[in-house]
Design goal:
Shape: elongated
CATH topology of the largest domain: Transferase(Phosphotransferase), domain 1
Strand order of the largest sheet: 1-2-3-4-6-8-10
Largest sheet: 7 strands, mixed
CATH superfamily of the largest domain: Transferase(Phosphotransferase) domain 1
Number of strands: 26
Oligomer: single chain
Radius of gyration: 30 Å
Number of domains: 3
CATH class of the largest domain: Mainly Alpha
Length: about 600
């Protein structure tokens, strides 16, 4: 008999994801550099953690320490917002086509040890604020179009060991103390070296360094090696540490003792920490229950609220695999609209996952289970939830490598943070997909009413499987109803929400579709738009459905009218085929029993 693999935990979690100043600063840099998504893949301001971005390195506290963007072909300017990266040690942007001036705000980077902006087209003066960089060891500004004098403030950089200002348009006198820097190059400017012949300068020659050519080459090569070591050694140790953690992630450890360690952005909890946090896994703290165990509310010693998923069936076939799959997937997914995993715990007898606790529960709760006195989701919030969910799924499909298929998209798995921002959660059914594969054949898992017809009939899932589920979720947002309802009033023949909405849409009864809890406080044109997007997403043929990237654009007002008109031309035949397929798969006997909260499938049928 097929074992149940489905994890259908509709948890009430809370996670407030405020804008990350570091991420905002780096995204401002992306915009100012005119960088394309090909140049800076996954630099998405909606991603929670910029430490996962291309060419960015962070320390164990998630502070950005290295920005390594040399020879990338940029053509824009430098963003003054970079000044907020107070822990930055290396800023390397050499070999691009960057124009404009050097922002004064770079003087705020007090942890900086290397600033490399050489071989660009920077203009203006060298900011005197660079004299605030007391930790600076290497400053490379050569081969630009810089003008003006060398700031006297650079003389205060006692730790400077390599100063390269050659091939610019600098004028004036070189500060006396800069000749004490072990490696320097002032040639190719119009600088005055003063009258101290020990500086080996020729004041009228346009160059400041009169060292033998061989010595200059040695100095430059030495500087290059120093820079290479500064950049490569941290990367070497980072890579080595990353490999070590990856190797040890799923190793069983004793339940007692301080055995925590970091894996990427995840914390490894000690068993006793979670036992205390959940009051010994007290039943009164149960938030939900699914195929592999229960979810408990907990509180850490610092008063951080958490949700702990305790896998009670991990030793059965599939249980431990589910744990590893979930850790693997969530550990690499960082986005404003994706539920983040805080950490995990493993012992010889336990597997636990730790998430933030969400104050505003799930979309399904707020639509259908809210208590008297609690606020109803208003229409603007529902629109925002639709767009946020679409962006989260787009991230899983497009920006994750390998990409991720969720496979159980529904209102119960979309959570709401403190600001009612949509957070896509429950990756228990998700599937990592190699970018070379177009679909994956697996046992059918999911929730009836949300499952795409091709997945139900063939077991093949793809991104379009999620698109279908998302379309049904949009209908939940509009109507407030379940995907399947055997007791739907006035429309007893329409068990499926999709059929119910399509029928009323054809009859142009949009008012009858909308959730009565809204008390007519909505824009009927926006309702019509959302229904159109939902119906396009839930077309019978996966090839006809839009991608999640297209869905995001349609929700933002681009391209919906054209796609809707195209679909209308073939709607009749598509509807007939879809109804035939649905009747085939949902023709249940009158004595069957189903859980209205989540009708699950354990395997292919």
């Amino acid at each position: 008999m097929e074992l149940f693999f489905a994890i259908l935990i509709s948890v009430c979690l809370w996670s407030f994801v405020s804008p990350d100043p570091q991420g905002e600063a780096l995204y401002a840099l992306k915009i100012s550099l005119n960088a394309s998504n090909n140049q800076l893949p996954n630099w998405d301001r909606n991603q929670v953690d910029p430490c996962t971005w291309f060419k960015i390195r962070c320390d164990e506290n998630k502070d950005v320490t290295m920005v390594l963007l040399s020879n990338m072909g940029f053509s824009g300017t430098l963003a003054p917002e970079l000044g907020v990266l107070k822990k930055l040690t290396t800023l390397s942007l050499q070999g691009n086509g960057i124009t404009g001036t050097i922002p004064d705000e770079l003087g705020n980077l007090t942890s900086l040890t290397m600033l490399n902006l050489e071989s660009n087209r920077l203009s203006g003066e060298i900011p005197s604020s660079l004299g605030n960089l007391k930790s600076l060891q290497s400053l490379f500004l050569s081969q630009n179009n810089l003008t003006g004098t060398i700031p006297q403030s650079l003389s205060s950089l006692s730790g400077l060991v390599n100063l390269q200002l050659d091939s610019n348009g600098l004028t004036g006198q070189i500060p006396e103390s800069l000749f004490q820097v072990p490696k320097y190059n002032f040639t190719g400017n119009h600088l005055n070296c003063g009258f101290n012949l020990s500086h080996h300068c020729e004041p009228d020659s346009g160059g400041a360094s009169h060292k033998p050519k061989t010595g200059m080459i040695v100095g430059i090569v030495g500087g290059f090696i120093a820079v290479l070591l500064l950049v490569s050694l941290p990367l070497f140790f980072w890579r080595d540490r990353h490999k070590y953690y990856k190797h040890d992630v799923f190793v069983d450890v004793p339940g007692e003792g301080d055995d925590r360690f970091e894996f990427g952005q995840l914390k490894r909890f000690v068993w006793t920490e979670l036992q205390i946090a959940t009051d010994n896994f007290n039943e009164k703290n149960v938030l939900g229950q699914g195929g592999f165990g229960k979810v408990y509310k907990g509180v850490l010693p610092d008063n951080t609220k958490i949700a702990v998923k305790r896998l009670t069936d991990y030793q059965s076939p599939g249980g431990d695999t589910a744990f590893k799959r979930e850790v693997e997937m969530i550990s690499v997914a960082f986005h404003r609209n994706i539920l983040r995993l805080i950490g995990f715990c493993t012992t010889p007898t336990e597997r636990l996952l730790v998430y933030p606790f969400m104050k505003n529960l799930s979309v399904a709760y707020c639509l259908r289970e809210f208590k008297s006195g609690e606020s109803v989701l208003d229409w603007p919030t529902r629109k925002n939830v639709a767009l946020g969910t679409a962006r989260g799924l787009e991230y899983l499909h497009v920006h994750c490598n390998p990409k991720i298929i969720h496979r159980d998209v529904k209102a119960a798995n979309v959570l709401l943070d403190e600001d009612f921002e949509a957070i896509v959660g429950d990756f228990g059914l998700a599937k990592l997909v190699d970018v070379r594969q177009t679909n994956v054949k697996t046992q059918v898992r999911g929730t009836m009413g949300h499952i795409a017809p091709e997945y139900l009939s063939t077991g093949k899932s793809s991104e379009k499987t999620d698109v279908f589920g998302y379309g049904i979720m949009l209908l939940e947002l509009v109507t407030g109803q379940r995907a399947i309802d055997f007791a739907r009033p006035e429309e007893e023949d329409d068990v499926l929400l999709l059929d119910y909405v399509k029928k009323l849409q054809r009859e142009k009864k949009l008012g009858a579709i909308v959730d009565r809890n809204l008390n007519e406080n909505y824009d009927i044109q926006e309702v019509e738009m959302m229904i159109q997007v939902a119906l396009l997403c839930s077309l019978a043929s996966p090839e006809d459905r839009p991608t999640m990237s297209m869905v995001v654009r349609m929700l933002e007002g681009e391209g919906l009218a054209e796609r809707w008109e195209e679909w209308q031309n073939v709607e009749v035949t598509r509807r007939q085929e879809f109804e035939r397929l649905q009747k085939h798969h949902y023709d249940w006997g009158e004595h069957s029993f189903y859980n209205q909260e989540a009708i699950e499938l354990s395997g292919g049928r």
